[in-house]
Amino acid sequence: MASYNIGIDLGGTNVRVGVVDEHGHIIEEVSDLTEAKKGPKYVVDKITKMINSLENKDKISSIGIGAPGPLNPNTGVIIEPPNLLGWKNVPIVEMIYENTGIYCRLDNDANVAGLAEAKYGNGKDFDIVQYITISTGIGGGLIINKKIVSGSQGAAGEIGQMRIIANSPKQLTSSTLEDLSSGTAIAKFAKERKITNKGAKEVFELADNGNIDAKRLINEVLDYLAVGIANITHTVNPDIFILGGGVTESLKKYGYINELIAKVRGYVYNSLVDFVNIKPAKLGTKAGIIGAANLVKF
Questions:
Q1: Secondary structure (3-state) at 38
Q2: Could you tell me which SUPFAM superfamilies the record lists for this protein (predicted)?
Q3: CA 171, CA 140: separation in Å to the nearest integer?
Q4: Which of 53, 126, 142, 150 has its CA 20 to 30 A from that of 217?
Q5: Domain span at residue 169?
C-alpha cells in the first residue's frame, strides 16, 4: 500500500493541508481560513478536522508543519510570531500528535519552502541552496544536501534581520534587509516619497510605465537586496539562490532578475563573480505543503 506524508502550510490568513507522495506530488489538498485570533486550540482542532476529511488519511506516515517564526523546530514550539497574534509558546507538534496519533515535525515556513525547492524545484540539481522569500517580509532557508540547516535554536536563515547599513538615512526607521527590501518597505518608501499609496505592485507598474521616482526606488531596493545576497555569498557560498514571494514575482515579471544578478556580482570577490546563480522559485504556493511533508523522510 502506498504511504504518504501530510504537509501543513499554516499562515496568518489561510491554512492548507495536503497529502504528498515521495516524488513531491500533492495528491489531495484542503484549505480554510486560519482564524488565528480564536486561539491555538481552535486552529489545531480545525486542522485535525481537515486531516480527518482527507480520503487518504489512513495511508499517512507522518505530518510536517510549516509555520511563521520565530519557532523552535527542536521542541516543536511556535514561540510568538507576529503573523499569529496572541500565540505564545504554543506546543503545536504535541497538540497535533495528541489529536491524531501521527508523528509530527515543525519548521519555519521559509525553511520548508526552501526544502521543497531544493528537492523538487530549481535547486534540485545543487547541494547548497539558499532560499529567500521576498514578500510582506523577508525570510530565508539554507538547505545543504537536501536537509534544512536550522541552527541550535532554530534561528538559522533569518536573513531578513541582517543589518545592511550601519547608520540609516533619516527616512528609514531601521537598517535590516527586511526594512529595506521587503514589499512592506517598498510600499512605505513609495508613500513617503509620494509615488503611490497602493503598495509594492503599483510601484513596479509605475516604473514599467516610465515613472522616474518609481524606477529610482526599485533601483535602491535592488541595491540593498544585492548587498544582502553578497553577504550570504561570502558567508555560505551557496551553489544557487532561489527567490520566492510576491516581490520576486514582480522582479521576474518586469525583468529585474538579471539586473539583480549584475548588482550582486559588483559586491562579491572577483573569484566568485562567474558563480553568482540566482533563479526564481519554481513551485509557487505549493512549496509550503510539499516542503512541510518532507520534514520527515518517506
A1: helix
A2: Actin-like ATPase domain
A3: 26
A4: 142
A5: 125-281
Question: What confidence tens digit (pLDDT) does each residue in 224-282 have?
Answer: 999 999 999 999 999 999 999 999 999 999 999 999 999 999 999 999 999 999 999 99
pTM for the whole structure: 0.92
CATH of the domain at 63: 3.30.420.40
Measure the CA–CA gap between 298 and 267, rounded to whole angstroms: 41
Residues pairing with 7 in the sheet: 18, 64
Query: Are 282 and 240 in contact, with CB atoms under 8 Å apart?
Result: no
- Decide: 124 and 131 in contact? Cβ < 8 Å: no
Residue 44, classified by CB atoms within 10 Å of its CB into exposed (0-12), middle (13-18) or buried (19+), is buried
Grid coordinates representing 116 are: 521543497
In a domain, 119, yes or no: no
Q: How many domains does the chain have?
A: 2
pLDDT in tens, 60-100: 999 999 999 889 999 999 998 888 989 999 999 999 999 99
